[in-house]
Records
---
Amino acid sequence: MPENSTAYEPTERTVPSRNRRRASYDRELVHSILDEAYVCHLGFVRDGAPVVLPTLYGRIGERLYVHGSTGSRPARMADPGLAVCLTVTHVDGLVLARSAFHHSINYRSVVVHGTAHQVTDPDELREALDALVDQVVPGRSYDSRPANAKELAATAVLRLDLDEVSAKVRAGGPNDEPEDLDLPHWTGVVPVATRYGAPVPADGLDPAVAVPDYLTVL
Amino acid sequence: MPENSTAYEPTERTVPSRNRRRASYDRELVHSILDEAYVCHLGFVRDGAPVVLPTLYGRIGERLYVHGSTGSRPARMADPGLAVCLTVTHVDGLVLARSAFHHSINYRSVVVHGTAHQVTDPDELREALDALVDQVVPGRSYDSRPANAKELAATAVLRLDLDEVSAKVRAGGPNDEPEDLDLPHWTGVVPVATRYGAPVPADGLDPAVAVPDYLTVL
């Protein structure tokens, strides 16, 4: 698919078996959900069984980069290519209905299917490492010592192209049954968000080093 | 393993290939990590490829229950049993080192391997549904209409026993190299936590219905 298309092409496995109205293939929506997070859950198959591990990722355009040491299992399995499913989820609210059955969560998620490949080009590896750092704290890669040759050699990065992708979003209030509307239970949504606390300097940091601006906007 | 053992028995696949010092099999630690969350990432294999979906879960003792409609893929595949990997992750902090290489995340995660089975016993199904609701908001199952026969029939719940389980924890400050300690970059940890906002009543809720106490302690 051309990268300037506004939507990803649905495939058999990116069309959900339930709640299809919540699915979206909109490229901007997918990017926005991915860019608000930095931890994904990466699934792969090992000895026929599923494995799901939390890991850091970064996005550059239509490519995701996933971090791992060269000793990690996904990295060792990624030559010549590892079938993966990469999932990112934000919880936005707790949905309390009058009926237990209609309790739910407001969320935004992205699921990416594809084959991950180990990055071997040195320039791409450096760009990917910057993207991984900047995904956590935008701008931070410019304010830290870049990886040296030894560190680059000890780092494995997998690339996963954004091709077979879907988003899923649930928003709004509870969907109670008409016959339940007079039940006496409180009903509504409890908003959920991520809170970033005041930065805590490391032991030994020179007190003259100020907290950088890019941390004050988190 | 006896359920009163203080630790889960490590297995070949619950011993991580890297950062082994971060791994733990302590039962109390595993329970505490599981009990602080309500969304897991459930991995399974479909047509030979991994699938990772976010979903709600609840814990009763050494059993996890995962929710799904009877039409959902994992539920349909869970008879007679579905190999799954269920992962729960809390992000506790952003670890900013002076070197890009030593950037990290403080986190607590639990990974459960096993075979999920569909719950067919009606009493167990009711208990599991209460556990799913109470995992999100402790005490809420007592303050909502229980599922009726039609809803129970439309709900599939999978059970996964806590048997092959590990936790992984990263805490503390950055681990910079000695030769980097005089670099001019700010270094430390940005704490990350979940923030619950003020409950938002659903449209049409009788204003006389007060926000329940169990929501004020979130």
Note: Chain B touches chain A through 94 residues (CB under 8 Å).
---
Amino acid sequence: MDDLETLPEAASDNDESDIYGDDGAVKTSYLARVGAAIADRDVLFLRSHVGKLHQSELGHVLEALHSEQRAALVELLGDEFDFASLTEVDEAVRMEIVDALPNEQIAEAVQELDSDDAVYILEDLDQEDRDEILAQLPFTERVRLRRSLGYPEETAGRRMQTEFVAVPPFWTVGQTIDYMRDNDDLPESFSQVFVIDPMFRLLGAIDLDRILRTRRDVKVEEIMHETRHAIPATMDQEEAAQIFEQYDLLSAAVVDENERLVGVLTIENIVDVIQEEAEEDILRLGGVGDEELSDSVVSTSRSRVPWLVVNLFTAILSASVIGLFDATIQQMVALAVLMPIVASMGGNAGTQTMTVTVRALATRDMDIYNAGRIIRREASVGLINGVVFAILIGLVAGLWFGHANLGGIIAAAMIINMLAAALGGILIPLLLHRFGADPAIASAVFVTTVTDVVGFSSFLGLATWWFGFK
Amino acid sequence: MDDLETLPEAASDNDESDIYGDDGAVKTSYLARVGAAIADRDVLFLRSHVGKLHQSELGHVLEALHSEQRAALVELLGDEFDFASLTEVDEAVRMEIVDALPNEQIAEAVQELDSDDAVYILEDLDQEDRDEILAQLPFTERVRLRRSLGYPEETAGRRMQTEFVAVPPFWTVGQTIDYMRDNDDLPESFSQVFVIDPMFRLLGAIDLDRILRTRRDVKVEEIMHETRHAIPATMDQEEAAQIFEQYDLLSAAVVDENERLVGVLTIENIVDVIQEEAEEDILRLGGVGDEELSDSVVSTSRSRVPWLVVNLFTAILSASVIGLFDATIQQMVALAVLMPIVASMGGNAGTQTMTVTVRALATRDMDIYNAGRIIRREASVGLINGVVFAILIGLVAGLWFGHANLGGIIAAAMIINMLAAALGGILIPLLLHRFGADPAIASAVFVTTVTDVVGFSSFLGLATWWFGFK
């Protein structure tokens, strides 16, 4: 234990460099110290060090601990356990910790959280537990959380924080500042003050720096800006994120169908949304659904099957194209050896074009004004690279099999397939997008089907015709 | 023209719903109105409507206009042209507009911009133009911009804004507020006030909401928080973004090697970084480098070649594996028909695993604590899905060629290749990461090489052995 004795002070500095190693993961020495403290039920150490960590740091520690250590740590920390850390961990870890706690304790903890964090924890619980917890909350708290939970997943209403600062338009800057000084019940942090009428209808908003720059006797209605970026509670979170990005917002009012202020979306929430949406695109392009690292083997297997089934069908389709030319292959086995090269190069080139297209559509960089130009560009790129690689593979194949005609045929097939790859790579996502489908989901399988079918049929077809087989 | 006459008022509302259509692109009717005004040199309309757009909206309009219209619009808008809109457009569009303007005019405009926007525009210019523009700026402005430009691309120093509010520790909250009320030279917007010593060394920071909640007679040093998230100017922007995300920061101090405050990184800049980095990962996974939609055909072709060359080598490698079994194929052409199915299914499964792994590494969700568990999980998933698809393809192939043994062989090869895909999909990115390479760049080609080689060799090898060919 001696070598661990130096750690406590370091950890009490609460400096990130102390709990994280160079690789960005929690240091094993720190984990060992925490593990030992849990085993010794050293409440003093745990509360004074682990209890002081930032919620995200505590989240990392929880994830790195063993399952049985987690429950013990939460129990030992008692009131010092920061429930907000549960918003930072994997769903499986969160559920495990929450399930182990009595609903009374969760209800108590939830009251301390900002409403967006509370919703984040409550939304994954089953209906029964959730109702039991909500029933134990004070009336206003319960109403607010129920309202957030009533909005569909991935909407602004579900993501918003219901704590905000709102003042009437006739107040002065001085009154507003005095109100904030005297009121203990403000949100933990905020970057805007909203201006509302007696019916809670949103009139405007003022950034805090604006308040600080203005004389005390000025009325808030004179300095508020009209909130043209008020976000309907039912708006999809991705759309809300695009508005934040376009207009560089730090926070935005969320309004219900009667234009009444019901909450605030903060950039912290939006940063998470941006990450999630980019993540979703990457996973979808890779043929993976909404899976988490903590998912079980069975659920992971099952979630990946649909995509593999689709691929099986398209692979059988490509195989049956080859089957059409079995007599040709019988007479020249070199064709079977070379044909995957044509298909593979096409698949690769098609994936390149498709990736660029899917991204440009997601970020709205591609629209009706430049689609035509980009299609022409991709076709030209496909043709140029087709010619370049036709020459290369033509030489390789000709020399390998000592057969100049074979080199010529694979070269011609390569040009055809690279052009097909370029057109498929751009037109397939565009068409999917046009018909309201997410191009990230289905483009890859269609593009490689095109390049496989065109690759095999052009190469084997040209060979059959040229050599006059059959 | 009559039907366009209704637009001006709509546009003067400056409401986003007016310039954007349902598809999120700028409405063609709006563009036509702007185009007509440019053709008529209708300065009044342009300044009062287009000149009032948000910088991002003006950026979208510029991108949608024809090349010659852009230059005319900028000229007609004159002083009303918001140079910040240039930070919102594609690099090619920006360069086109900037190149058309005299350096004097750019120098004048740059002084009006926040320093981060100014740097964004200046960094792409060639050395000569940049020096000429900098030479025309006032001394302090020039020094600040030169300092930012002196930091490497993609660092915090290059991204930071050099305008900030800083006060000494002995000031009271009241003094600080009065200073902000009286000073006209504050940044356009800010969310923190920094506390510095006479040497400009950073002592702490205070969020604006904290200032507003505190009595006037309290000293700032009493309410400032120590800035443990001060960011060294040379830190990579991706690392800075991770700190923002982890600690939910709205802004952070940037310090030089002597701990002196040199600028501030804002969440607006960081949101752009997060987008860029996610984008980079997606493009790299798709085998595309750092390309833009506006790049020319030649530069696009050239940038995609390296990846295709690598793929050509690996495709030839796979082909030579097939070449080892040419005698076998000669005796049973069905093998040539079926072999791409085994390779394709493996490629797909491997890509799924690889995508999950690359993302988990990028978001630091995977680390030494869970790597072992995830490797075991992926191997199990590969085995389970291998068995599922082995049964399916075994039945299909057996029935298709009326040959039960062939079905058994492809089934066995499928299990082997799906297991290889799972292991390759996770171990290759892990190894690349371990050796300091970005797994997003090179994983895909290695993984599909593994699944092609294992797929072809296991299937053809098993067939050769089972049927006793050769």
Note: Chain A touches chain B through 117 residues (CB under 8 Å).
